[in-house]
Amino acid sequence: MGLIEGHLDVGAPEGVPIWDIDPYATDVLENPIEFYREMRAKGPFVYIPRYAILACARYAQTKEVFSDHERFVSSRGVGLVDFKQTTPWRPPSIILEVDPPEHTRVRRIMAKTLSPKVMREQASLLQSIADQMVAEVVAMGEIDGVADLAERYPTTVFPRILGLKKSNGRHLLDYGAMVFDAVGPDNEIRRASLSKGEDVVPWIMKQCERDNLIEGGLGAGIYTYADSGDISEKEAGLLVRSLLSAGVDTTVTGIGSLLYCLAENPEQFELLKDNPKLARSAFEEVLRYTAPVHSFFRTSAGDTEVSGIKIQENTKILCMLGAANRDEDHWPNADKYDVTRDVQGHLGMGAGIHGCVGQNLARAEVSAVLTAILAQVDKIEFTGTAKWRPGNSIRALASLPIKLTKKEA
Ligand code: OVM
């Protein structure tokens, strides 16, 4: 049995259609919605020979596979490469790429580091920077929503909350792209992102060191667990690395996609202005509708069965979170962005024990930005065509030309 893209080819299970498609082709990544529909229509699973993987796109199976950490493990990587067969591009994450019981101890520490209480302590800082930054873009009028707000806000607030002594927004963005593109195949996208590693990786690793973290920040907070002996000094550094891996590109994407949804659906923006209490569900609906992380893998740890399909041990399964979030059988009118929808159960932050541990911080950041927008902005209009940036696991905008009209006091 040979290796394909760093994992074993176990072949197509009985009853699963074979689909000769490249889910990582640029045109698919730029415009995935029709592709999602087609994949869901083919059945609970498809086998994709090009990468020798199973893939699921319907809500039920995607949720089942993605959240059952016993049958479908993360310790063999959440990308195409099976860490049991092939050495990963960097030392594995000790929270993402690990299973219980090791996962449990480390997850508890990260959950405490990123708890709702800690986030409430950061709320006024997050709000004052959001208020100021939104005032600046409103004064500009015509902006690129990606560069001028979606990238600028997290690369400003996140290093402050972490307590990085030195920051470099470009390096933070490039490292995020590396980490999220690395889970895909060895394609042009992955190679382009990883090619920046020579500059970016040593810089990132340096900022993870205790001496480069300001007292009182979240990063230094993680090192207090090394002081108490709960984790080693090295593990503390790797957990700071996890924050820097997963905390920037995701929130950049969330804010950009929020602006996109509001520009695309002016009637929803009006509804939101009249009912600011809908702000939270407006963002949850962005997560459902756009799925910042469009897909991650799991690996089957043994022979098993899902929805009557026999899945062999060692199978890489591509869980299409973005497609599950648009499944009409689960979400009535799935292709409508609707701020009044009951959006519970979406997979935009994953599900189960590996569900986004930074979700409180992500929501706090977006909530601050949205609060500032609702206070200061009357209208958001496209001034050109929004462009999507093809990513191996993140679906983000490359540019978003919009005009913001100031709300009269
Ligand atoms: C990490 C991490 C966590 C979530 C996502 C991610 C693939 C990385 O712990 O480094 O991106």
Automatic annotation (TrEMBL):
Coiled coil: none annotated. One of its GO terms (molecular function) is heme binding. InterPro entries: Cyt_P450, Cyt_P450_B, Cyt_P450_sf. It comes from the Bacteria. Belongs to the cytochrome P450 family. This is Cytochrome P450. It comes from Pacificibacter maritimus. The lineage of its organism: Bacteria, Pseudomonadati, Pseudomonadota, Alphaproteobacteria, Rhodobacterales.
